[in-house]
Amino acid sequence: MKKRTVMSILLLFLVGVPLAYAGESVTFKGTSKTGEPFMLKGILTKPQGQGPFPAIVMLSGGRGFLDAHNKWIERFVSWGYVALQVETLSSRGLSEIFGGFGLVIGPRDAAQDAYDAKTYLSGIPFVDGKRIALIGWAFGGWAVLPAIDPSIPIQNRGSSFRVAIAFYPLCDQPLMGFDAPLLILHGELDDWHLVSRCRIIEGGKGEHEIILKIYPGAYMCFDMEDMDKISDGHRLLYDPVATADAIEQVKNFLVRHLK
Description:
There is one protein chain. With about 260 residues, this protein is of the alpha/beta class. The chain has a single domain, classed as 3-Layer(aba) Sandwich (Rossmann fold). The protein contains five helices and twelve strands. It has helices spanning about 1-15, 70-80, 105-120, 140-145, 240-259, and strands at about 25-30, 40-45, 55-60, 80-85, 100, 100-105, 125-135, 165, 180-185, 210-215, 230, 235. The strands form three sheets. Strands 1-2-4-3-7-8-9-10 form an eight-stranded mixed sheet, with helices on both faces. Helix 3 packs across helix 4 (about 140-145). The longest helix is centred in the C-terminal third of the chain and has 19 residues, at about 240-259. It is globular, with a radius of gyration of 19 Å. About 40% of the residues are buried. Residues about 1-20 have low confidence and may be disordered.
């Protein structure tokens, strides 16, 4: 019986059923404010096959990517997308966005990183450079907003992202005039990035759709499995019901605008 069990596991491995998705560490050219050479770090994960695949640029929260983000990577890859985690913080030798007197880096820095990541992805043979999405969480979700606002100066902006998704962003501007469809997923009880600050301004020629989905009773990090803590006085809590719906919202939004 033991031999059969071992052989069964080996067979599953040989026929290509993945036990986990393994990402590859990559570096690519970034844009520094001083003009000096600057390299960004990232983790690139791709589906099986030759492609070309649509891709997703991922921006982290204010303390970098968490283990729980791996769940999202597995989903993206299983849905047929290349996923690139942009290491905005570690690329600059930082562990968080906060310093002694506030932010060390801001959302526009991460937005610039997102476009540099998009340029890098567009040069990879197995990526379809015309189908690249942007998704961010918390600080990264905040950075999504200037990234798709054509009035914000971004070096080497090029073409826009095809679609953007922001998890519990800090909305520091009216939601209008973006150059890509936007889906915002927010928790009603988020006391760090208040959902009440997210105001959609309707109207205007050529504007893309903006969807704001608010989850009753949910806090920041509602989609981060096993999350349950207080950080800087703010509640962070996993919500399986909100997460299940968010997965479907993200999957369907990507299909509608990227596939």
